[in-house]
Amino acid sequence: MICRHCGSEDMFNLVDLGTSPPSNAYVLKENINSEEKWFPLKVKICSECFLCQTEDYSSGEDLFTEDYAYFSSFSQTMLDHSKQYSLEMINNLNLDSNSLVVEVAANDGYLLQYFKEKNIPSIGVEPTKSTADAARNKGIEIIEEFFGVSLAKAMKENNKSADLIVGNNVLAHVPDINDFVKGASILLKESGVVTYEIPYLVNLVKNNLFDTIYHEHYSYLTVNSVKNIFEANGLHLFDVELIEVHGGSLRVFGERSDKQVKTPISERAHKIIDDEKLKGFLSKDAYRGFQEKAEKVKNEFITFLIEAKNMNKKVIGFGAAAKGNTLINFSGIRSDLISAVVDTNPAKQGKYLPGSRIPIIDEETMKKLKPDYLIILPWNLQKEISNKTNYIKEWNGKWVVALPELKIL
């Protein structure tokens, strides 16, 4: 394997999660007897630049198809977070009707709708037809392509340079991370700012969040690795913010490195960069033992499910999320142990989880089934989901989370 950023072939292993289909490749009822594409799910780290990355077996076109079923607007937590971000950026950057906001991976318009409410011109770049159409239905202009240098040049030539480029939960999703970041440096105005929100590798390792590893994530990032990638592709990292979304993420701020007067790197960014070095994330030290910790969670989860089955307890999952599919397929779970998974997104209902073929049902069906245990698969939404399903107490139902350790709530 060759490092996606620096080209080095000197890699070491972080974790091997076996094999599974892509985590968002939900199975249609009419295809229930058809084969699926399974790929190894292994993560390696470059010994030269320490970029953590999934071993490459599938292309973006294979993963982000026109029927891609992840819609951000079905999470109130994400909507609240996005609205707060939009208000902060409008205020901090003095955005107005003469500005342009470009969101890469705009999904269903969950974020740009808040800029639109404030009459700030915006364009979304979204390659998946299902989510792009949903965004258009909100009145948002969408370019239905993958983002990179080629599209950035075309947009710039069409007078669509950006005051703000937003990329939330996308930097980890791109196979050619250099082309993607270089595109942002081309599209930005000289005074423009780019922000990316990314799952934080330090939290992933520290909290054993192996379920955030899946094929759609090509990279797992630290501030040091982002800084290296920025510097190689025409951007200057000047600030970093730790945010709570997705169980602990980074929001990184960049600007063009050829800006006449660059913004000084913030004190908090300096501190995080230094802390990563001290904690061993620029060596092999911080990554030792991760495989064993992942297997411990898997074994405890399987044991719980088998014991529940032996006691004739009914177990249903909540949230047909990618992270849940990683956990289920790594653990070898099938519908004999988790009979169904609830999801509020109609685009997933009536389908089956990839790999495990566990059926996806709606919430009303779950209420009729009255599970003894409701497993919250997207643990980062634990509070939102438990509040939403508080009614399971009526039949003495209990919530369960498997990560970072098994808990019955």
List the topology elements.
Elements: E1 11-20, E2 39-46, E3 52-54, H1 60-63, H2 76-93, E4 101-104, H3 112-117, E5 122-125, H4 129-136, E6 141-143, H5 149-157, E7 162-168, H6 177-187, E8 188-199, H7 201-206, E9 219-220, H8 223-232, E10 235-243, E11 249-256, H9 267-278, H10 290-310, E12 315-318, H11 322-331, E13 340-342, E14 360-361, H12 363-369, E15 373-376, H13 382-388, E16 398-401, E17 407-408
Parallel strand pairs: 4-5, 4-7, 5-6, 7-8, 12-13, 12-15, 13-14, 15-16
Antiparallel strand pairs: 1-2, 2-3, 3-9, 8-11, 10-11, 16-17
Detailed description of the structure:
The chain has helices at 60-63, 76-93, 112-117, 129-136, 149-157, 177-187, 201-206, 223-232, 267-278, 290-310, 322-331, 363-369, 382-388, and strands at 11-20, 39-46, 52-54, 101-104, 122-125, 141-143, 162-168, 188-199, 219-220, 235-243, 249-256, 315-318, 340-342, 360-361, 373-376, 398-401, 407-408. The protein has 409 residues and is an alpha/beta fold. The strands form three sheets. It has a seven-stranded mixed beta sheet with strand order 6-5-4-7-8-11-10, with helices on both faces. α5 runs parallel beside α6. It is globular. The model has no long low-confidence stretch (mean pLDDT 93).
Summarize the structure.
The protein is an alpha/beta fold and 409 residues long. It is built from 13 helices and 17 strands.
